[in-house]
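cron nightly-structures :: item 1 of 1
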Amino acid sequence: MTEAEVSAPDDVLLHDLKLYDHNRLVRAAALMFHPDPEQYVTGAYIKIAYFAPAGAYGQNKVDDIIYSDDIHGPLMMQVDKAIDLIYTKYLKALISYDGLQRIETFLWPKEGFREVLLNSVNHKAYETGIPIQIRVYDDKITIWNDGQWPDKIDVARVYERHPSIPHNPKMADVFYRSGEIESWGSGFDKIKMECDQALAPYPVINANPKGGVELVCNACDLYLKLLKHGRYYDTYPEEGSEEPMTSTNTLSAEAMKSVDRMMDILSRRLSEKEKTRLLPMVEYLKVHDKIDAQTTKEVTGKSKATATRYLQRLVELDVLRKKGDSNTTIYYRK
């Protein structure tokens, strides 16, 4: 809609959005725009809960809820509020580095899950009075709504071209006019694109013929590897390999904290040229807590004088501390 169209008086705008029926507001108007749509439609909100793995908090069972939230308010705002909460409170971005470039990896792509949630909100059967339910685990997110999968769309072929058959057409039209969704059945195309970019698996769809649709969003491969092996483990053995792991996933928690500090300082304060020059030293210091001039000379291929200058630069950045005299100086990672 244009700026002129949305700047019209509220009653004109609601008429243009076809939310009046014989001069009475329809249910979709209350759901989309009323500050408290639950006054008119029971269960018009989103429930979110984090479920910890078995044994994480004492003797808890797999389905133990550790914390939860409910998202209320007009549906036009619920989706963004839920996504912001999930990706700030419920999910953690695991950190890895491409050289000194910091990379944050979420369990599942944010924009893809936003599209999943928009689909759930638009296709939910609001007459049942049951809220949308999102379960967050360490390795997956599931979302369930008490809707009905359209008979005309084959679940197994959902990523192929198919018609748009919203359960709530008036609501879907408002979301379309606001630019939130398309109206050509292309939602799963966008989900597929986001998953392909993040190398994440496509959602698993469980459509109960008696009602209720669940989508399971399993974690991407990189996230699972970082979760299992540690943030700086760059080369993962192939499945079934007997190769031992020798990277920083074997470090103590204190050492990992030291490496975190080092990487944060260097990624922020070094120029691109310095990052390239010092990278061999940084890779060495990810695994070892100390280094000297001779070792620096060997890993960088530079002269001893240049190696000493590189070490001094890391001292200036408060990454290393010197110990010993000029002949036996050792540099320790802080």
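cron nightly-structures :: done
The CA atoms of residues 30 and 204 lie 32 Å apart.
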